[in-house]
Design brief:
Layout lengths: L3 E4 L9 H11 L3 E7 L11 H10 L3 E7 L7 H7 L3 E5 L6 H10 L3 E6 L17 E5 L13 H16 L4 E5 L7 H7 L3 E4 L1 H4 L3 H14 L2
Parallel strand pairs: 1-8, 2-3, 3-4, 4-5, 5-6, 6-7, 7-8
The chain binds D-xylitol-5-phosphate (DX5) and zinc ion.
The site of zinc ion (ZN) has 6 residues, from strand 2.
């Protein structure tokens, strides 16, 4: 299975955002993770439509939008028109997940469904055949720079086994606390799309990206 790195700009230096993204591109990133927070579903507020639109104008990286907002169905058209290529929404935030999935699909975008650390893999059962990706949070959503919760990797293992048995080639993304030191563990568990924020932008983003991408490609 192909592995993809999705650097999270939440940890970037916003003064130099464009240059930081160029550095991730030069390092070989394929996705760019964009964390949209509303201050309600999660305590913090990050950024939204204008930032997404600005990114879309200048980068060819696949824009991986992680919606941490209540009732995400309200913003799907807007996110799609601003340039989201993949839209991840939280199962816990949606009163009608199927309609959100259908809306994303009808706009021709990739669909991801996301679960928080306390949500079991079994809660995904009704949706597994309808989505392109499951995003398993390995920290409580809301902030960068936290430590990965190792218990959440059991959920990644469980889900990879389940989807393999079902014959689905689903992408499994992991978000939260991924570092060079635990990357192998995360890939071993069955994830193939890796979000990393502070591990990339906390250092030289080009070098950090290259290190991650090389490790990930070696394991395909
Ligand atoms: C947290 C966000 C993450 C965050 C990851 O709510 O969803 O994408 O940016 O940051 P690190 O890699 O620093 O844990
Ligand atoms: Zn995220």
């Amino acid at each position: 299975m192909k592995n993809y790195l999705s650097p999270s700009i939440l940890a970037a230096d916003f003064w130099n955002l464009g240059e930081q993204i160029r550095a991730a591109e030069r390092g070989g990133a394929s996705y760019l993770h964009v964390d949209v927070m509303d201050g309600v579903f999660v305590p913090s507020i990050s950024f939204g439509m204008p930032v997404l639109e600005a990114l879309k104008r200048k980068t060819t990286l696949l824009l991986d939008v992680h919606l941490m907002i209540v009732e995400p169905g309200r913003y799907i058209e807007t996110m799609a028109s601003m340039g989201a290529d993949l839209i991840n929404f939280h199962l816990e935030a949606a009163s009608d997940p199927i309609s959100v999935i259908k809306k994303i699909r009808s706009l021709g975008k990739k669909v991801g469904i996301t679960i928080k650390p306390a949500t079991p893999v079994s809660a995904l059962d009704p949706y597994l055949e309808l989505v392109d990706m499951v995003l398993i949070m390995t920290v409580e959503p809301g902030f960068g720079g936290q430590s990965l919760m190792p218990d959440c990797l059991d959920k990644v293992r469980q889900l990879r086994q389940k989807v393999t048995e079902m014959g689905l080639a689903l992408d499994i993304e992991v978000d939260g606390g991924v570092k060079e030191s635990n990357l192998d563990m995360v890939l071993d568990a069955g994830a193939n799309v890796i979000v990393a924020g502070s591990a990339i932008f906390g250092g030289n983003p080009e070098e950090r990206t290259r290190i991650f991408v090389e490790k990930m490609e070696a394991r395909e």
